[in-house]
Specification:
By secondary structure, the protein is α/β, with parallel strands linked by helices. It is 32% helix and 25% strand. It folds into 2 domains: 6-239, P-loop containing nucleotide triphosphate hydrolases (Rossmann fold), CATH 3.40.50; 257-448 and 455-493, 3-Layer(aba) Sandwich (Rossmann fold), CATH 3.40.50.300. A 6-stranded mixed β-sheet has the order 6-9-10-3-11-12, sandwiched between helices.
């Protein structure tokens, strides 16, 4: 094999009190997809930020095209042909697609933009990634998948030879994922160096030519070929132990109806929704992106005001004007976008855990007991195995899995009867996923009803007792886990399909 276009040599990166990367060395070749895998906090994203120029390494160096480089800024990385497409896309919603594509190098003269030329160039770049929508449309009007294609087209406008993808499929439907994979394969065939970060091992086996496994900031092993490599082998290298049954499902006795939703209607739903969840039941809501699952959960917990219908908890009707009405009746939500809607990033782990329950630690609502707050948060950190240097650590510095556990810890300080989980393992590694599943099983064993939205079919089939399928804002089917399989669920979720004969009604 010829000399690699991209070479990492003994890369190290230290933050105050933390060694994020240590002695990381591997090669990535042209015309190949090189996957990076590992648990949250293993160092993958830190390495991509060093590659992009967002971080400077503490030690070691990069070689790009045979030349040693240390990027002082992202502008230097871009100039060297490096593009990193992050899970949170770096685009400007208020600008047009065309302006986003050529931001910083708009065509024109004397400070005036040549709009006709900009439109022509934009159409050409969009065609390279299989899109033909109007480049004059404002970016915020596009779907997540379309925005991602704009990000890829933007990288190509800058002549990127090295393109890194960081969890690119976390918000995409199955169809959108396949389209993205098609583009990545085209880029590989065109001779680009592709780095691909994902926690979904099935994607690794579909796309990758080689894999580097990270653990605790170090490289455990690099597989130059996936021939003979199995999921169990990769999981073992990532977590340092064997995990044969990540879901660890066990049936449990169910109680009375904890949650009853009758004729609920509101923004995001195309038809009234009715369903129930029993005490101790794990109920999954499955559907494609845009099916109305998130909207339904927000209506149930009062984050959106319903226009019709009712919600009952243990037989008592809720008045859902605000989320706090639901919280005080034991209905809580862990949102899909934990960074925007779930955590207070610049506040401590302790404050994030106590933000709802701290009213229980105050005297007449005037004075909060720091001792009680610390004891409460410390107990939940230990119970949920939240890995943090201290309770005072800002939560923004925790891994995604530990942030998610902190959000769950917040609600365990309440008298919870129904927990609504929206994509609880999105962007989380297999080790953290198992910990989240364990928490879900523990909640169910305590007679809490768990309603979980998930786009991952193995997760839906592996953890739930019953599955509800949504399509285009409607509930279309409900079935027990024993009756469900991937083909049946997908057929129900796809817009052009109908319900199979003999399907159970909701």
């Amino acid at each position: 094999m010829s000399q690699a276009h991209l070479q990492f040599r003994a890369i190290g990166k230290n933050f105050p009190g933390v060694k994020a990367l240590e002695n990381v060395s591997f090669d990535a070749h042209e015309g190949r997809v090189h996957a990076l895998i590992g648990e949250n906090g293993a160092g993958k994203s830190t390495l991509l930020k060093i590659l992009s120029g967002a971080y400077r390494p503490t030690s070691g160096s990069l070689r790009v095209g045979g030349q040693e480089r240390v990027f002082e800024s992202t502008a230097q990385g871009i100039a060297a042909g490096v593009a990193v497409i992050y899970q949170e896309l770096h685009l400007v919603g208020q600008l047009s697609v065309a302006e986003n594509l050529f931001l910083g190098h708009l065509p024109g003269r004397w400070g005036l933009v040549n709009r006709r030329r900009l439109r022509e160039l934009s159409r050409r770049q969009l065609a390279m990634v299989g899109e033909d929508f109007d480049p004059n449309v404002r970016l915020e009007r596009l779907s997540i998948a379309q925005r991602q294609m704009v990000e890829i087209a933007k990288a190509l406008t800058r002549g990127a030879k090295i393109i890194a993808f960081d969890e690119p499929t976390s918000s995409l439907s199955a169809r959108e994922v396949e389209k993205l994979f098609s583009i990545i394969r085209q880029l590989r065939q065109a001779g680009h160096v592709i780095l691909y970060v994902s926690h979904r091992l099935e994607e690794i086996f579909q796309l990758a030519d080689s894999v580097t496994v990270f653990r605790d900031g170090r490289i455990v092993e690099t597989f130059d070929s996936l021939s003979g490599v199995t999921s169990d082998i990769l999981i073992n290298r990532m977590v340092g132990r064997d995990i044969h049954d990540v879901f660890a499902y066990a049936p449990r006795p169910l109680g009375r109806a904890a949650l009853e939703v009758k004729g609920l209607m509101g923004r995001g739903l195309a038809a009234p929704a009715s369903f129930s969840a029993a005490q101790g039941e794990v109920l999954a809501l499955f559907g494609l992106v845009g099916a109305g699952r998130t909207e339904l959960l927000k209506l149930v917990c009062g984050a959106r005001r319903p226009s019709a219908g009712e919600v009952r908890v243990l037989g008592e009707k809720l008045r859902l004007r605000k989320p706090k009405d639901a919280i005080r009746r034991g209905v809580v939500l862990c949102p899909e976008d934990r960074k925007q809607e779930g955590i207070f990033p610049v506040r401590s782990v302790m404050e994030n855990i106590n933000i709802s329950a701290r009213r229980h630690f105050s005297a007449g609502g005037l004075w909060i007991s720091p001792r009680r707050e610390r004891r409460h948060a410390s107990g939940l950190v230990e119970r949920l195995s939240i890995r943090t240097p201290s309770l005072s650590q800002k939560i923004m510095y925790l891994s995604g899995g530990n942030q998610q556990k902190a959000i769950l810890a917040r609600w365990l300080g309440e008298d919870v009867k129904v927990v609504l989980l929206d994509e609880p393992t999105r962007g989380i590694d297999v080790g953290a996923k198992r910990e989240i599943y364990s928490i879900i099983h523990d909640l169910a064993s305590r007679h809490v009803a768990v309603v979980m939205v998930s786009s991952e079919l193995p997760e839906v089939l592996g953890i739930s007792d019953r599955i509800i399928v949504m399509r285009e804002g409607r509930i279309v089917a409900s079935m027990d886990r024993a009756a469900a399989n991937q083909e049946k669920l997908l057929a129900l979720a796809l817009p052009e399909s109908g319900s199979p004969a003999g399907q159970d009604r909701v």
